[in-house]
UniProtKB/TrEMBL annotation:
Pfam assignment, any one: Aldedh
Nucleus found in the keyword field: no
Family matches, as InterPro entries: Ald_DH/histidinol_DH, Ald_DH_C, Ald_DH_N, Aldehyde_DH_dom, Aldehyde_DH_Superfamily
GO MF entry, a single one: succinate-semialdehyde dehydrogenase (NAD+) activity
Family recorded in the similarity comment: Belongs to the aldehyde dehydrogenase family.
GO biological process: gamma-aminobutyric acid catabolic process
Keyword Oxidoreductase: yes
Name of the protein: NAD-dependent succinate-semialdehyde dehydrogenase
Keywords: Oxidoreductase
PANTHER family listed in its UniProt record: SUCCINATE-SEMIALDEHYDE DEHYDROGENASE, MITOCHONDRIAL (PTHR43353)
């Protein structure tokens, strides 16, 4: 970390108010809420606690800015994104520190998130000038079918705490590129990164009212009136499947377009012919990125019986050797979980599995405070009846079971309501293709523990979501296709 950036300085320069119509301001009712440092359990600072009234003001600002923003030349929209990419990259150290302070992940991981998050702006700056229509001669020859793609209009973007910079940029990037205005409602645990991002976009030249930010401690009551307001045209949500279902139901009222990036329960499959060292490297990324608090985290490990012992020994070695501590300390690899509730949930899942017969190879016991630490944990012989095998863990726990029959393993891997990601390690091309085609997930990593890539479509099947973010299709979520029938004699 550059020695010119201190915690106090980065907190001091971050806005704490709502961003509405280009101005940071206090909540109308004057309320604030505390942002906590999960490594210490202490308060970092207070931010504005927006109300429904504030959110409707933000929608008013987004709605007022929509038509001029949609008419702004694509090249200008692209240049704003490009400048914001540059600024994010230049300010990696201070943004990374802010992410670590409010979310807990290590500085190295926060820096990687800044690079990943900024890349969405670079990618969508390149997409902004490539929004294409279509022109077809009617099959009967007598007319023309003309398609144009137009911005959908004001959007509500709701984002989670686990990736506080890149989840917003993955939505804001395509919305800006498409010509949509928006209201961002960041998670209450991590509002500061979103506010810093908003400041950077303003500096990059984003006009007033295009991006509005409403921080609040009561997300349901504050966003509900927006979802029932006809000026809002789109809801893009990343978070839990549970909240996603509520938002889809509310969106039915005005038949609001929705994109949903929801929870996961990813299987990590190691076949008998896999390169075990590579599989362990991949598992460390797929399991431990974000301290296991990732929708694409490997949630269940299926190891072929022939390689199970070697893989488990090597994974246990690596997991038990990780440095746990406050993310701001250089060298720390595993920070705290986001809050006491998350730490207690992880502990309860592990205890349940152990009661049902699972064996602890490393970890398995929450640290006592301060901070919400849980150690990297490996469990073997995890029965399919345990909660660990069915629920999204969101913590640094690797539950292992073994298989001998590929079809049985595939049935078990697919036996979940989630369908976000799966990982397969094998050196057999036929097997890789067979599994990739039969795993019911929106993304499959073959001999790769990391699938996130701004140039690729991210999203899930089944109850993991609707729509895709990133890649060449990511911008479609923010565009309407309009068909014009042209009569030609
Ligand atoms: P969460 O659903 O509790 O919260 C997500 C966001 O929704 C937050 O901003 C929160 O304030 C808001 N929210 C909560 N209740 C709401 C309501 N009633 N109305 C409107 N907004 C509401 O999820 P979380 O705990 O912040 O994040 C963890 C979840 O997010 C996990 O399930 C994870 O898998 C998922 N996630 C998915 C992806 C993906 O791309 N598929 C990415 C990251 C996280």
């Amino acid at each position: 970390m550059s020695n010119t950036i201190t915690e106090a300085a980065v907190l001091n320069k971050t806005e704490k108010g709502l961003l509405i119509g280009g101005r940071f301001r206090a909540a109308a009712a004057g309320r604030t809420f505390a942002v906590e440092n999960p490594a210490t359990g202490t308060t970092l600072c207070e931010v504005a606690d927006g109300s429904a009234e504030d959110a409707l003001d933000a929608l008013g600002a987004a709605s007022a800015a929509q038509s001029s923003w949609a008419a702004t030349p694509p090249r200008e929209r692209a240049e704003i994104l490009r400048r914001a990419y540059q600024l994010l990259t230049e300010r990696t150290e201070e943004i990374a520190l802010l992410i670590t302070l409010e979310m807990g992940k290590s500085l190295a991981e926060s820096r990687a998130e800044v690079a990943y998050g900024a890349e969405f702006f670079r990618w969508f700056s390149e997409e902004a000038v490539r929004i294409r229509g279509d022109w077809t001669v009617n099959p009967g020859g007598s007319g023309r079918i003309v398609l144009m793609r137009q911005p959908v209009g004001p959007c509500l973007l709701i984002t989670p705490w686990n990736v506080p910079l890149a989840m917003p940029t993955r939505k804001i990037g395509p919305a800006i590129a498409a010509g949509c205005t928006m209201i961002l409602k960041p998670a209450e645990q991590t509002p500061l990164t979103a506010l810093m991002l908003a400041g950077i976009l303003a500096e990059a030249g984003l006009p007033d009212g295009v991006l509005n930010v409403v921080t609040t401690s009561s997300p349901g009551p504050v966003t509900e009136p927006l979802i029932h307001d006809e000026r809002l045209r789109k809801l893009s949500f990343t978070g839990s499947t549970e909240v996603g279902r509520i938002l889809i139901a509310s969106s039915a009222d005005k038949v609001l377009r929705t994109s949903m990036e929801l929870g996961g329960n990813g299987p990590f499959i190691v076949c008998a012919d896999a390169d075990i060292d590579a599989a362990v490297d991949g598992a460390m990324i797929a399991k431990m990125r974000n301290i296991g608090q990732a929708c694409i985290a490997a949630n269940r490990f299926y190891l072929h019986a022939d390689v199970a012992e070697e893989f488990t020994d090597k994974l246990t070695d690596r997991m038990s050797g990780m440095a746990v501590g406050s993310g701001v300390d250089e060298g720390v690899e595993v920070g705290p979980l986001i809050d006491a509730g998350q730490r207690d949930k992880v502990a309860a899942l592990v205890d349940d599995a152990v009661r049902r017969g699972a064996h602890i190879r490393t970890g398995g016991k929450a640290a006592s405070g301060p901070g919400y630490f849980y150690p990297p944990t490996v469990l073997t012989d995890v029965p399919s009846s345990s909660r660990l095998a069915r629920e999204e863990i969101f913590g640094p726990v690797a539950p292992i079971s073994t298989f001998t029959d590929e079809q049985e393993m595939l049935r078990a891997a697919n036996d979940t309501e989630s369908g976000l990601v799966s990982y397969v390690y094998t050196r057999d091309l036929d097997r890789a293709i067979r599994l990739a085609e039969n795993l019911e997930t929106g993304m499959v990593g073959i001999n790769q523990g990391l699938v996130s890539n701004p140039a690729a479509p991210f999203g899930g099947m089944k109850q993991s979501g609707l729509g895709r973010e990133g890649g060449s299709v990511g911008i479609d979520e923010y565009l309407e296709v309009k068909y014009v029938a042209v009569g030609v004699a």
